[in-house]
Amino acid sequence: MHIKRIYLKNFRNYSEQEIILENNINIFFGENGEGKTNVLESIFLCSIGKSFRTKKEKELIKFNEEKAIIEIEYKKIDRDGKIKIVLGPKKEIYINEIKVKRLSQLLGNINVVLFSPDDINILKNGPSNRRRFLNILISQLKPKYLYILNLYLKALEQRNNYLRQIKLENKDRKMLEIWNEKIAEYGIEVYKYRAEFIEKILEKINKIHREITDDKELIKIKYSSDCKCKEKFLEILKKNENIDIIKGYTSNGIHRDDFTIYINDKQVNVYGSQGQHRTVILSLKLAELEIISDEIGEYPILLLDDFMSELDQKRRNNFINHIENTQIFITCTEKIDISKSKPVLYKVDNGKIIL
Predict the structure, then answer these.
(1) pLDDT in tens, 332-341
(2) Per the CB 3.0–4.6 Å rule, which of 104, 129, 157, 301 could disulfide with 143?
(3) Domain span at residue 318?
(4) Is the dihedral of CA 13, 302, 203, 283 positive or negative?
(5) Which element (helix H / strand E) includes 4?
C-alpha cells in the first residue's frame, strides 16, 4: 500500500499544495510551525476520519477561509483509490468521487500506523488514551467494531440521562433495566473485539520487545474489563444502581476498560524508566504494524512525526532496517541520514513544499 498524491487546499497553513510521492521513504524537514506535521495529519484524517491533534475540525481550516479540501490518491494490492474530505459547516467524505454517509465506510481504505511524541501518553496518562489506541487499531480492520461501539456509547448516554431523571424527577428505576440490557448487549461485543486484539498484540510484542532489548525484558499485557460476561456485567450494573443514581452516570462498563503493560512483572507506567517507556511504545507500534499486515495482506503506511529525533543514528538505522515494504513519512527539523535507501526530501517552508 502506498500514497501516490496528496492535494491540500486551505488545510491548516496550506493555501494550495500538490505533493507527488515516492513509494519508499519521504522526509519532510523544516523549522517548527512550518507545516510538516500538517501533511501527516492530512493522511491520518483520510484514514481515520479524525485528526490526531485536535477534536475541533474548524482548526483544520485555514484562517479566514470557509472550507478546506484534502484529497489523497493511493494504491493497494488489489485496487487504486481516492479519498476526498471537505471540511466546512459540515464534513463531507468522498470515496472514488462517491459521497458516503457513514465514517465506517471510510475506515480500512487507507491503513496507517502513527508514531508521535504524544504516544508516550498511552502509557503515562489515563485509560482513555489506551482505549483510543485500541479503538483506532481495531476500527481500521473491523469497521463493524466502530458501529457497535457507537451503539454502546449512545445507549450509555441514554442510561446516564435516565439516571439523572431518577435523581431529579423521581422516575421509575425499573426502566433502567432496558438500558442495562442494551449496554450489556453491545458491551460484550466490544469486549470480544478488544480481547481478541489484545491477544494479537501480545503475540507480536513479545518477539519484538525481546529483539529490541536483547532478551533482557519480558513484556506482558493485562486487559481489565467489566464486560467479560454479560450476566455478571448485568449483576454489576444492578448492584451499583444506587451509586450511579447519586453520581448521575454509569460507573462500570466497556467505557472504563483498560490494559496494563508489565516489564519483568513490574508495571511500566509506575516503575519503568523513560527509556523503557520509549521502548515499550516502539514495540507496541511495531506490533500494530505487524497485525495490520497480517489482517490485510500488505503493510500499512507508517507516519513518524518528529520520532527520529528521539533516536541516535545507530538506533535510527536499526529501526528503519527492520521495516520492509512500507511507505514511510518522516517529519524532522533538519535533514537526517538513513542508510537503508535514498529517501526523497521535501523542504517545508511556511505552508509550501519544495522538492
Answers:
(1) 988 777 766 6
(2) 104
(3) 1-111+300-355
(4) negative
(5) strand 2-11
